[in-house]
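Researcher: Please translate sequence to structure tokens.
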Amino acid sequence: MLTLHHQYIANSKGERISVIVPVKEFEGILQKLEDLEDIYLYDKAKQAPQEFVDADQALKEIEEAREKDV
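Model: Translation complete:
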């Protein structure tokens, strides 16, 4: 579980308008979001139709793509 040590900034009406979070905790939040995005993309890829390519063919396609980028 993620524990935050945050503080709120309020406007003159007392309404919360911003949050202050320690940098290490913010970086932890970003890392967790990246991990969640990776999981989401993995799950999405697993649901897509799978096409299997021979390793030699895959290497050939990679080399062809590299040559186009040069």
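Researcher: Any highlights?
Model: The mean pLDDT is 93.
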